[in-house]
Structure to design on (63 residues):
């Protein structure tokens, strides 16, 4: 069976009162988004990350 994973990383994180996108805030030494990607890679290689807010900045971090 093939599993596809979608990570929703498009929010502003306005309640965090920061110019850094919410998904790029560091937790335990790495961006929050990377924790989700690492956990997903244990399940599947077919991962899609949906980005919107500050998309170029998030895309650069992923690449």
């Amino acid at each position: 069976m093939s599993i596809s994973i979608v990570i929703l990383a498009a929010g502003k994180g306005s309640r965090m009162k920061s110019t850094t996108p919410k998904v790029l805030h560091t937790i335990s030494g790495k961006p929050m988004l990377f924790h989700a990607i690492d956990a997903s890679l244990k399940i599947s290689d077919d991962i899609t990350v949906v980005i919107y807010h500050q998309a170029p900045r998030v895309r650069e971090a992923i690449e």
